[in-house]
């Protein structure tokens, strides 16, 4: 992977992170070569009939980075900024994430480049079904397993699984619902998957607080992104009596220093589509959101939000990365110099893929676990990974992101050493 000087793309940021960790740990140079490349990159252009009878052509992506630890696994994003570079980066992060939390999955990611907000529900259904059909046997329950990400949800996963199974031969339709995770519970989903990423973020923050002797009771936090990850993290932190004082999403940003009730805001967003105009808070701008003094900042939206330009604004003790790639390498350097702790994405937001793994296992075994079982297994996995990253940071005297990479790369390196390269 090449280091770059110009304004970096998301994938180039991944390369810089990877190269830094690989240098520090002296990663086997053959393994480094393999992990520097994605395995498969699939681009599909497919037609979909709109409600008014017109045909539109959509471009969809699926990038499969690596499968040495198990089947490819990763979400699907519907967003205008989806392109091959972004999907490549997100797929690569998935490989590291599964490695850190020690689940038998590889890394993949996909998406469609469009704004789903501009389409009706029936158009979204046809777009999803036609994309699933276009991917064909490039996905599969033991091969590559999609899940929700930005602007996709349990309903989209239900349409995907239905389309996949409907296009299989009859004898293999019953036992393959684990082709997709993040399904509605009634359609084979797992209890606790909806909140899993936010729950993992909160478990990680709890461990950080324990380490630092920091009391979460009364702690103040700000959030960027109030979708699945941002809203669940906020609602679960409320149980610690922590106070949400500023939130931003695609519609705008709001603040109330006395506190914003995360459950009420979730209901408001469900009705209006965004946080803007929430009556129990005042409107603020993006810069004010980032500059708000707080204990915890939770980016839970998109990549490259904390950069050389914005990192100097932050006045918090810790950044808990709910989003993938919210901090670029220049942003990392500034936060590290300022003494702001970073709970890196590939550890902090791994709750989603962990419970996706639990869903996959339940489907395969025809089991249905109760919520307590899911939560306690998730807690065990996240805490183990957190301690592993913390100890690795001490061992190599490096920042936590680099330590998280080293945990994953060590695991992958070991498997390659044992298995060797065919032929
Ligand atoms: P989502 O679609 O449910 O929510 C996305 C949120 O980001 C929305 O509130 C949206 O308004 C906001 N947003 C979009 N553009 C923005 C902008 N320019 N400024 C501020 N806010 C903006 O998506 P999600 O599933 O919550 O995913 C959020 C992040 O978490 C992504 O980086 C995703 O990859 C990551 N993630 C999600 C999961 C999961 O299980 N859903 C798991 C791991 C990581």
Describe this structure in words.
- The chain is α/β, with parallel strands linked by helices and 423 residues long.
- 45% of the residues lie in helices and 16% in strands.
- The protein has helices at 10-25, 29-35, 84-101, 121-135, 154-166, 196-212, 228-238, 262-272, 286-291, 329-338, 345-348, 351-365, 371-396, 400-419; strands at residues 40-49, 55-66, 72-78, 107-112, 144-148, 220-224, 243-249, 252-255, 282-284, 296-299, 318-320, 341-343.
- A 7-stranded mixed beta sheet has the order 9-8-7-6-10-11-12, sandwiched between helices.
- Helix 6 (196-212) crosses helix 13 (371-396).
- The longest helix is centred in the last third of the chain and has 26 residues, at 371-396.
- Bound molecules: nicotinamide-adenine-dinucleotide.
Which secondary structure elements does this structure contain, and how are they paired or packed?
Elements: H1 10-25, H2 29-35, E1 40-49, E2 55-66, E3 72-78, H3 84-101, E4 107-112, H4 121-135, E5 144-148, H5 154-166, H6 196-212, E6 220-224, H7 228-238, E7 243-249, E8 252-255, H8 262-272, E9 282-284, H9 286-291, E10 296-299, E11 318-320, H10 329-338, E12 341-343, H11 345-348, H12 351-365, H13 371-396, H14 400-419
Helix pairs in contact: 1-3, 1-14, 3-14, 4-5, 6-7, 6-12, 6-13, 7-8, 12-13, 13-14
This protein binds nicotinamide-adenine-dinucleotide.
Nicotinamide-adenine-dinucleotide (NAD) is lined by residues 148-151, 197, 224-230, 248-250, 300-302, 322-324, 349, 352.
């Amino acid at each position: 992977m090449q280091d770059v000087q110009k304004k970096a793309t998301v994938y180039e940021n991944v390369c810089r992170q990877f190269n830094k960790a690989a240098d520090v740990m002296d990663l086997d140079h053959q393994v480094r070569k393999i992990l520097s490349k994605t395995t498969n990159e699939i681009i599909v252009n497919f037609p979909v009939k709109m409600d008014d009878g017109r045909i539109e052509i959509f471009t969809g992506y699926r990038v499969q980075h690596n499968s040495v630890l198990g089947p490819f696994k990763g979400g699907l994003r519907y967003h205008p900024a989806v392109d091959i570079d972004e999907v490549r980066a997100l797929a690569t992060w998935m490989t590291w994430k599964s490695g850190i939390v020690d689940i038998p999955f590889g890394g993949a990611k996909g998406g469609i480049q469009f704004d789903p907000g501009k389409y009706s529900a029936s158009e979204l259904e046809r777009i999803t079904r036609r994309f699933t059909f276009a991917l064909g046997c490039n996905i599969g329950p033991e091969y590559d397993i999609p899940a929700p990400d930005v602007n996709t949800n349990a309903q989209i996963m239900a349409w995907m699984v239905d389309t996949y199974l409907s296009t299989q031969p009859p004898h293999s339709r019953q036992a393959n619902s684990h082709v997709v995770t993040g399904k509605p519970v009634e359609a084979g989903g797992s209890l606790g998957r909806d909140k899993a990423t936010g729950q993992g973020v909160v478990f990680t923050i709890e461990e950080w607080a324990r380490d630092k002797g920091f009391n979460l009771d009364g702690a103040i936090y700000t959030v960027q992104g109030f979708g699945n990850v941002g809203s669940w993290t906020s609602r679960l932190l409320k149980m610690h009596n922590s106070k949400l004082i500023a939130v931003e999403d695609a519609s705008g940003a709001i603040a109330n220093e006395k506190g914003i009730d995360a459950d009420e805001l979730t209901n408001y967003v469900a009705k209006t589509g965004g946080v803007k105009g929430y009556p129990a808070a005042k409107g603020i701008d993006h810069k004010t959101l980032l500059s708000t003094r707080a204990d915890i900042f939770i980016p839970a939206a998109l990549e490259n939000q904390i950069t050389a330009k914005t990192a100097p604004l932050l006045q918090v003790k810790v950044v808990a990365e709910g989003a993938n790639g919210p901090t670029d390498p220049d942003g990392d350097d500034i936060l590290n110099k300022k003494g702001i702790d970073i709970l890196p994405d590939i550890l902090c937001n791994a709750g989603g893929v962990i419970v996706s793994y639990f869903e996959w296992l339940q489907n395969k075994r025809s089991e249905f676990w109760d919520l307590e079982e899911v939560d306690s297994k998730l807690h065990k996995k996240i805490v183990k990974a957190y301690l592993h990253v913390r100890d690795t940071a001490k061992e190599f005297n490096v920042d936590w992101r680099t330590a998280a990479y080293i945990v994953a790369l060590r695991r992958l390196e070991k498997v390659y050493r044992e298995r060797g390269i065919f032929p």
